[in-house]
Amino acid sequence: MGVTNEQFLFSCIDNSNSGTINFQDVADACGITTKGAAYIKFRRMKEKLGTIPNGGEETTGAGDATASGKSEKMTTKKVVKKSTSKKRKVEASEDVDDVDDGVKAIKEEVTEE
Which of 27, 31, 47, 84 has the least CB density, counted as fewest CB within 10 Å? Predict the structure, then answer.
């Protein structure tokens, strides 16, 4: 079983510096697999307590610090939906043949130079 919320919050306080929490150290102390998982646990607790609205942005910047002190943003992947529309087939016409002749003429001019 995991740590209690109180133990987790104490670890967050213990592993913070000037209001910035080192989530890698929190994860190590609490037996959480990654610093991202520790950050998510902290964020969900804040949402539950009402300190930030669900899906809202944090203004303190807490949770963006890494073990080396550099900041990085937590990002989410966007799901790109494939287009399901089908292209319709173009019937061969005389216009296409005219274009092909024009392309051949240009290729011949380029090769002559």
Answer: 84
Residue 12 has pLDDT above 90, yes or no: yes
Q: Read off the pLDDT of residues 16-27 as tens digits, 9 standing for 90 and up.
A: 998 899 999 999
Would you say residue 27 lies in a domain? yes
69: left (phi over 0), alpha (psi -120 to 50) or beta: left
Number of structural domains in the chain: 1
Residue 84 forms part of a structural domain: no
Q: CB within 8 A of 12, min separation 6: which ones?
A: 21, 26, 42
Give the pLDDT band (50/70/90) at residue 50. Answer: confident
